[in-house]
Amino acid sequence: MKENFSRRGDRVRPAPAQPRPAPPEPGALAAKVRTMAPSMTRSMQRVAETVAADPAGCAALTVTGLAERTGTSEATVVRTARMLGYPGYRDLRLALAGLAAQQASGAAPAITTDISVDDPLTDVIAKLTQDERQTLADTAGALDISQVEAAVSAMASARRIDVYGVGASSLVAQDLAQKLLRIGLVAHAHADPHLAVTNAVQLRAGDVAIAITHSGRTVDVIEPLQAAFDHGATTVAVTGRPDGEVTQYADHVLTTSTARESELRPAAMSSRTSQLLVIDCLFIGVAQRTYETAAPALRTSYEALAHRHSPRDVR
Amino acid sequence: MKENFSRRGDRVRPAPAQPRPAPPEPGALAAKVRTMAPSMTRSMQRVAETVAADPAGCAALTVTGLAERTGTSEATVVRTARMLGYPGYRDLRLALAGLAAQQASGAAPAITTDISVDDPLTDVIAKLTQDERQTLADTAGALDISQVEAAVSAMASARRIDVYGVGASSLVAQDLAQKLLRIGLVAHAHADPHLAVTNAVQLRAGDVAIAITHSGRTVDVIEPLQAAFDHGATTVAVTGRPDGEVTQYADHVLTTSTARESELRPAAMSSRTSQLLVIDCLFIGVAQRTYETAAPALRTSYEALAHRHSPRDVR
DNA sequence: TCACAGGTGAAAGGTATTTTCGTCGCGGGT
DNA sequence: ACCCGCGACGAAAATACCTTTCACCTGTGA
């Protein structure tokens, strides 16, 4: 299926790129709901929320029952189940039963209230920690291993890797580029959209472009990715919206998790945690596959930094 | 049939005494099978045993499927489900799914080893996630609230905040500065040690300088902090070594946690996670204390970014 | 205001589950 | 040995449940 007639910029992402979009596991359901909710219609959101709020109760209901309880129709319930990655309601129900059993036995119901203005610092720390830990678990649970695998393979053998990210994501992009540089790969992070595009058009088949955007519709990041895509590079999207515009130009999509946010807890926080986990996975994967060169490179760069530390207390 | 002549000892237990004969719990299924097995017919025993041996597998089967797998009929399967205390097969199946999820999650905690070169990607993700979660818990547990409190107070009323970090820590420094800017504070991140020092000497009492260094002995970060300290600014150190040199010039010390590291997992990874949690706590704390100005500022900056996203799908 | 796109639910269409009912095998009595 | 009755068992009918289709309706942009 590789039709590398790179003559025109009209390369299109192959439609059946998601034969098995999501292996539906029970644990990460709440996360999935949060990830997909924005791209759902109102009725479907109602269903999804009901289901996430009371898995045990909903597992006991039939399609009709759940439709009634949410004030919607059976069709909508089935549609929601599909959106969450299950073949139909029956399977969602099974997963729900699993989830219910898990949280029944797994003690901690993990109820996190939102952070409010007058929370004492102790609570802030506790809630923040709890949330970030949850985000990590969710992200790991929702990660599509085959996509990671594919991205890692492409990166490991890439001539050059470009990473795009603006705003908070730019820090993540830089982090990834820094790490890749340290194991001897050619990687650049671009935060300036103009420079990003001008660099992107230099890419060709065998190169890799990675876009990092939580919303999935940050134009400053989509444009360079599209340019890279059109020029035949392998493209990867790290995004919280697997249905976002950015994925149109991505050969591989890595979904980051979305945590509930509030006024005091801006989007940047949990999405950043999620993104960092994903890029760390990419990094380790690449390091494994290029171990021959990566290991000595890591050692060298470590030693190069040693003299920048004050000499004493070298334990 | 003789009805209610209760005078003799032949009183009969009222028939509807067991409207709910058995509350079907998921966990005790195996036990229930053993209890009931003797009073079952051969075919039913086959079904019960199959079910107890492989809950996960059976949960995926329909009545017909399970009947086939056990070499029996659908009716027998349903009868078995009844015998085990469920209203029908559907409910048994639900319980099975729950049981499967339970024992799946119970079997999980087998990840303590280090990441090695030949770990499959699945393990890498699991280990990485586990480690980062542990790091978060450790950091939160080790954080000295009074120090956080003090740092937050100083920051909230600061005329200006400078943040120093080089290498991986520079990204953390930038993250903090970015966030503080978004709530209307005057904050700068310095990665260039020369510029950092030249800026540090401009600070005075009422200003805040924050140094971020995992090792606690990164000279490029210590020098500007010392300069700020000498000029009367309030200084904060975010470090993994509370006994490190950097703390000599720090009014407040926030300790980050250190996870075990290995060749494939460079220091930057878990220390970064830890540092980010700490600065997030600082940020939220400051945002709370400056809520009057922070809230509208956050809203404004959010709106300012809206047009940088592609317009569609604004739900 | 109109045309249109897309969400939504009623009802038709299938599939899975439950019930019914007749057969068959087994043990005990004649 | 044969017959009788009891209960296990499964095929198929009956039902409940799930899925799909399609027309309506609502909100949106010209």
UniProtKB/TrEMBL annotation, chains A, B:
InterPro entries linked to this entry: Homeodomain-like_sf, HTH_RpiR, RpiR-like, RpiR-like_SIS, SIS_dom, SIS_dom_sf, WH-like_DNA-bd_sf
Annotated region (Disordered), positions in chain: 1-28
Composition skew (Basic and acidic residues), residue ranges: 1-13
Statement: the UniProt record of this protein carries the keyword DNA-binding: yes
Keywords carried by this UniProt record: DNA-binding, Transcription, Transcription regulation
Ranges where the HTH rpiR-type domain occurs: 27-103
Domain SIS, first and last residues per copy: 151-292
Ranges of Pro residues composition bias in the record: 16-26
Protein name, per record: MurR/RpiR family transcriptional regulator
Organism: Streptomyces bohaiensis
Lineage: Bacteria, Bacillati, Actinomycetota, Actinomycetes, Kitasatosporales
